[in-house]
Design brief:
This protein is an all-alpha fold and 347 residues long. The protein folds into 2 domains: 81 residues; 230 residues, no CATH class. Helix content is 58%, strand content 0%. Helix 3 runs antiparallel to helix 4. It is globular.
C-alpha cells in the first residue's frame, strides 16, 4: 500500500546538541534558617511571616505564643485571602483546645461553619468540631460530626476508626452511668492517620496533632451534660455491634488500598490492621457475626469505581448545593439497618 505522505528532510536530521554544559551541578536556592524572624514591619507579606512563626511555635508546643501569633496574622491577612484566613482561624481554635479553652474554640468553629462554601470546607469544620466535642465530653455531638464526615468520605478508614472509638466510648459512658466503672482498655487508633485519607491543604497536620491527644482521653464520668446526651442511645449491645462494624469497615478499606502501599506507609497500614484486630477481639464478636458484617459493610467495595488501582475516595470538592447531608438517623439506616436485621435473624 502506497502513501502520498511527504516529509521534510529536517524531520529525519539529527537533533542539535543542547547548549548547556554537561557535568555542572545544580544548587537549589534555599531560604536562610528562620528567615521569617525578620522585622515584620519591613515586609510587604507580613501576615505570611507571622503564619510561619506561629506554625513553628505550634510545632514546639508553645500554644500560648502560637495563638497570639496566629491572632496577629489573622488581623493582617486581607479579607480577599479567604483560604489563608480559614486556615489561620482553625489554627487558633486548635491552640485553644490545647490551652483548655474549649468553648472559645467552639465559637471559632461555629464561625467557620457559617462560611462553609464547599465539601472541603465542611470536612475541615467537622474535623475541628469533632475534636472539640471530644474534649468537652459531648459524645452525642462528636458522633454526629464523625457520621457526617463519613457521609462525605465513606471510603476513608481513618474516619471509620474514629467513629468506632466514639461508639465504644459511648457504651462505656452509659455503663458508668448505670453502674460502677470497670475502667477502659481503650486503644485509640485515631492517631494512625491512613495514607489513603483525603488531605486538605494544611489543616490535616494539625488534625493529626489533635487526634494524637485523644490517646490519653478516657471516657468521662457521668454528669448531667453527659446523661442528657446519652438519651438517644440506650442500647449498649447495639452500640457495641456498631463499633465492631466500623472497625471491620476500616479494616476492609485498609486491605483494599494495601497493594498500593510500600515502605513505612505499608508498615503503618499493617500496624493499624493489627490494632483493629485486637479491638475486635475485645468486642467479642463471634466468627459468624464477623463474616456477616464483612459481607454487609463491604458491599459497596465491589463497585467498579473501587477496582481501578485501589482508588476508594472518589469524591472531589463539591459545592454544598450539590451535596445533601443525611441526618444521623438516615446514616444509621444506611449503614447498620441491614446488618442489624441479618444478625437478629441469625440468632
Amino acid at each position: 500500500m502506497e502513501c502520498d505522505f511527504c516529509f521534510e528532510d529536517s524531520v529525519f536530521s539529527e537533533t542539535r546538541e543542547r547548549t548547556g554544559q554537561k557535568g555542572l551541578s545544580y544548587t537549589a536556592r534555599q531560604c536562610e534558617p528562620r528567615w521569617f524572624a525578620a522585622d515584620v514591619e519591613e515586609l510587604v507579606e507580613a501576615h505570611t511571616v507571622l503564619k510561619f512563626r506561629a506554625d513553628l511555635s505550634y510545632r514546639r508546643e508553645d500554644y500560648e505564643k502560637a495563638f497570639i501569633e496566629y491572632s496577629d496574622c489573622c488581623a493582617l491577612t486581607p479579607l480577599s485571602n479567604s483560604a489563608m484566613r480559614r486556615d489561620v482561624q482553625e489554627s487558633q481554635a486548635r491552640c485553644l483546645i490545647h490551652l483548655g479553652r474549649h468553648k472559645e474554640a467552639l465559637q471559632i468553629a461555629e464561625l467557620l461553619a457559617k462560611g462553609v462554601g464547599n465539601t472541603d470546607h465542611l470536612t475541615g469544620v467537622l474535623n475541628l468540631q469533632a475534636t472539640i466535642h471530644n474534649h468537652l465530653g459531648n459524645l452525642q455531638e462528636e458522633m454526629s460530626c464523625l457520621q457526617q464526615l463519613i457521609s462525605l468520605h465513606p471510603f476513608n478508614p481513618h474516619f471509620w476508626v474514629c467513629l468506632a472509638e466514639s461508639y465504644r466510648s459511648h457504651v462505656l459512658a452509659i455503663t458508668n452511668c448505670r453502674g460502677p466503672s470497670h475502667g477502659s482498655d481503650r486503644l485509640d487508633l485515631c492517631s494512625q492517620t491512613s495514607p489513603g485519607a483525603p488531605q486538605c491543604t494544611q489543616h490535616m497536620a494539625r488534625t493529626r496533632d489533635a487526634n494524637v491527644s485523644r490517646d490519653n482521653v478516657l471516657p468521662r464520668p457521668c454528669n448531667k451534660r453527659d446523661t442528657s446526651s446519652l438519651t438517644a442511645y440506650t442500647d449498649r449491645e447495639e452500640l457495641w455491634m456498631w463499633s465492631g462494624a466500623c472497625f471491620i469497615r476500616a479494616r476492609l478499606l485498609l486491605q483494599l488500598i494495601q497493594p498500593q502501599h510500600a515502605s513505612f506507609v505499608l508498615e503503618r497500614n499493617m500496624k493499624t490492621q493489627e490494632q483493629i484486630e485486637k479491638q475486635l477481639e475485645n468486642i467479642g464478636l463471634l466468627e459468624e457475626q464477623k463474616m456477616l458484617i464483612v459481607e454487609v459493610m463491604g458491599e459497596d467495595l465491589l463497585a467498579e469505581r473501587t477496582k481501578e488501582e485501589g482508588q476508594t475516595d472518589t469524591k472531589t470538592t463539591q459545592t454544598l448545593a450539590s451535596f445533601i447531608m443525611p441526618s444521623d438517623e438516615e446514616f444509621k439506616v444506611r449503614w447498620f439497618q441491614k446488618m442489624t436485621a441479618l444478625l437478629m435473624t441469625s440468632k
